[in-house]
Amino acid sequence: MNKGTDIKSLSMDELRLETEKMGEKAFRAKQLYEWMHVKLARDYDEMTNIPKHLRESLAREYPYTSLKEVTVQVSKIDGTRKYLFALSDGNYVESVWMQYHHGNSVCISSQVGCRMGCRFCASTIGGLERNLTPAEMLDQIYAISKSTGERVSNVVVMGTGEPLDNYDNLLRFIHMATDENGLNISQRNITVSTCGIVENMRRLADEKLQITLALSLHGSTQEKRRELMPVADKYDINQVIAACRYYYEQTGRRVTFEYSLVGGVNDTDADAENLCRLVGGLNCHINLIPVNPIQERDFVASERSDVLNFKNKLERKHINVTIRREMGKDIDGACGQLRRRKHLEI
Prior knowledge:
The protein is about 35% helix and about 20% strand. With about 350 residues, the protein is of the alpha/beta class.
């Protein structure tokens, strides 16, 4: 291995090749992989069946990704946990643990910050710092599993960052999270969010994975979307919807549309009618999300009556729609809020 190789981002096959280069027997790779991705060791010292000389050599040569828990907020309403983790370079990322009847879900970040600039999102204030490595994405799940003592069965890549802006690391993360030698999470239990980077949506479709693609739509027309999402200046809404249709054609997986309802901005009857026309004929599910107010913006959530009216209009057109259950509303539940506050303190 080269000095500085991210050992926790290596696949089993890569780890096997590298340990052989170090003069170690092949079974050491399996032991290492199990310690990292099944037993969730937080450092080399925990790897008790690895010889001391090898642990010392690994510690000298290869940094070990292990996120440090800085803050955890626990919701008194539903037990949701919001974590702030410190990375080895002093940056911070957020993750959320949520309990549902179908299992425990973790929402992870894919970048430090974000450059997409969506107007209603705290994650994008301050721009993009850097991409996360596959190990840093995985370790959000591992650290939360250790913290809660619970198995994670569902993963949503919908925290800070635009996952498809970190495409190669995201793809490696998915393969490792679903590897039978590691967490062995079903691909069907992984959801990846995007604001609509069309070429990478199509690349992901061509991988023919069984993950769910969730598009942050938030506008029923190109004009409305541009008001809220600068990415719409680059990708027309019809290009984005065409990429969603392509994803369904290639994978057979129903596409999810995330639609944040902003009071007086995108929650009118006309918006509902335009949305029905836009997604008509596509096997999809629409998640209506009352927007989380943030202090840096003046957006407000739609009135409950407007949310229900919007939902009813979609249902009358036979569109599968739900109002997202709000989790962790009392604990900075929205993306970027906790990290943002930490930076303001610093």
